[in-house]
Write a structure and sequence with these properties.
about 0% strand
Length: about 300
């Protein structure tokens, strides 16, 4: 049975720690991509309870995967400067067994939400995403291959597909177009992070691209994936997106490419951090452009 010990700061500190287990910043990006699919599909705009239930299911299942990731990596996180003082398990705010029980509980609730209120397809997709990220990515890919973030990025990109199937019970081109954008966005986003955190990854023995192949190879791969991302960002037009989105994708992609090239040329950490920060802005803005375009065109 899960027990709660009162940490310094009281119950609110405990609550914040459990929320932190779900990686709320990452989950905000997941919810934005899922909400984008729901807005474009449209049927739940007149059913706000269902709209919110889909987002809740996405948060619970995605949060489960993130919490299990932290449970399995708790000893590694304690050795990394980036995570040792930011995550609840290395800080001892939550015990490992409580974190495991919490993770499984919210995952079960999330999958059950999709199964009961929507359909079996969405429930199975969400369960597959949990298992793929928390087990295959965390326990196998991340410690064994520098392609970890490329393959593992598929889990973080599934939200628009799951949201669409929850609303319709079927697949379509648009959610897969959004999936591809997020999938191709993930490597340049996380490799930029890895460039200025590579000492942490080297310390714990994770074979991140900058550690194994060096900065030059990493910058080259960021450039390749950035170009692929920009090309993929026009795929929604084949699924019905209009001129407003096309203009936004062109502008946002141009800025992304210019920041990628600048970081590659200068090799300055400040430029790499600007690229990393802009990559977050880019994903939010692309999703916003898709949603606005849906109403304007």
């Amino acid at each position: 049975m899960m027990t709660v010990a009162v940490a310094p700061g009281g119950l609110m500190a405990i609550l914040r720690a459990y929320i932190q287990l779900t990686k709320p910043t990452i989950m905000l990006l997941v919810l934005i991509t899922g909400a984008t699919a729901l807005v474009i599909e449209g049927s739940f705009l007149a059913q706000p309870i269902n709209f919110l239930l889909v987002l809740l299911g996405l948060y619970l299942t995605g949060g489960c995967a993130n919490a299990l990731n932290q449970y399995f990596e708790r000893e590694v996180d304690a050795r990394m400067k980036r995570t040792a003082k930011r995550r609840p398990l290395p800080q001892g705010i939550i015990s490992p067994i409580n974190a495991l029980i919490f993770s499984i509980s919210i995952g079960v609730i999330g999958v059950a939400t999709f199964w009961y209120f929507f359909n079996a397809l969405t429930a199975l997709l969400s369960l597959g995403t949990i298992l793929f990220y928390s087990l295959f990515y965390t326990l196998y890919l991340k410690p064994n291959t520098y392609q970890n973030i490329v393959i593992g990025g598929a889990a973080g990109a599934m939200a628009p597909v799951g949201a669409w199937t929850a609303a319709t019970g079927s697949m379509a081109l648009m959610p897969w177009a959004i999936f591809l954008i997020v999938f191709l966005w993930t490597p340049p986003h996380f490799w930029a992070l890895a460039l200025f955190c590579k000492d942490d990854y080297r310390e714990v023995g994770y074979p991140m691209l900058p550690v194994l192949k060096g900065d030059t190879a990493t910058h080259n791969q960021i450039l390749v994936y950035s170009i692929a991302l920009i090309a993929a960002s026009f795929l929604p037009m084949a699924a019905g997106a209009g001129w407003l989105y096309a203009g936004a994708a062109t502008l946002l992609g141009g800025i992304f490419l210019s920041r990628t090239i600048r970081a590659r040329r200068s090799r300055e950490i400040s430029d790499v951090k600007r690229l990393f920060g802009y990559s977050i802005v880019y994903l939010f803005a692309i999703c916003a452009a898709l949603m606005v375009d849906n109403f304007v065109v």
